[in-house]
């Protein structure tokens, strides 16, 4: 049996030699596909992945808060910054990931594929890391343009894969740490190019850096005001939309075109001691406040706007529930959707900048922005700023 296995392995290796020979040669060609190039690109990619993971974790905690972990409502631009970093670093990761794979792909097809148990574990971790990375950045890009061609929940899957990716990255770094340390300690001078080669390692790294910077420059203007003039590729643009503010979901898409403008609309505020219905005129009769707050969406776009309406604390006081100490349950006229019903922790509900907004940028709310009334609060994801309000409940 051992002789048969050896002969079979030799036969397979002989058949694959023409296919693998080019890969082996490429793997040994200095300097572009050297270990140093791989480590340099890997550093940048690791920074991008870790930034994505940290900011994505923060976004997840805002959307699914832990009862024992209060999230900050200030500064008001906090989520705008963290989610902007999340999408910017994720965008930069695309060319970095492709470059990283290009520098190592010959070694992905080494023969024999497994030489020992330790080598098998290393190869398995690499397979997981490569596969998860490709899926993670792909569905992330699709989410930016809201093109959900996959049959699963983006948010749940994206979050779960992030943990798998970071775990596989940790294993990979642990296995490759000796190589990384050795390369870092070596002098950074480029070795002479191989005959016929015109691309140096520094040239390759520079080209990859330019590609990542260009991807960021042409998309980050959807959240960074200074880069707005260069925003050529992002799906949202600052100042473009009803009342000068972009939108993700229209009233028609939410199925509230008729109910939002119905003359009998009321906002019900329920408290442990009872409930009260507020008409639009009732809301306008309450003390009005104004706040400049950003809409910051998980897709990475954001823009500040001027909102006017009733402070949440004033509305709750008018309903007999001043200073809530438990989360609010907020319902939209929208019947379907993951965020048709949301919860607002008390630190947001009691913040004086949190409004039940009735006006936007000096005019009555456009129906696509949540007419007749919507929530706007500091430091919250756009999906949590519920539009087309129907009911606010103070939990016991």
UniProtKB/TrEMBL annotation:
Q: Which UniProt keywords apply?
A: Membrane, Transmembrane, Transmembrane helix
Q: Note whether Transmembrane helix occurs among the keywords.
A: yes
User: Lineage in the entry?
Assistant: Bacteria, Bacillati, Actinomycetota, Actinomycetes, Micrococcales
Q: What name has this protein been given in UniProt?
A: Molybdopterin-dependent oxidoreductase
Taxonomic source organism = Agromyces tropicus
Per the record, a Pfam family? Answer: Oxidored_molyb
Q: Which SUPFAM superfamilies match?
A: Oxidoreductase molybdopterin-binding domain, Transmembrane di-heme cytochromes
Oxidoreductase molybdopterin-binding domain residues are 262-395
Q: Spell out where the chain crosses the membrane.
A: 40-61, 81-105, 126-149, 161-184, 204-228
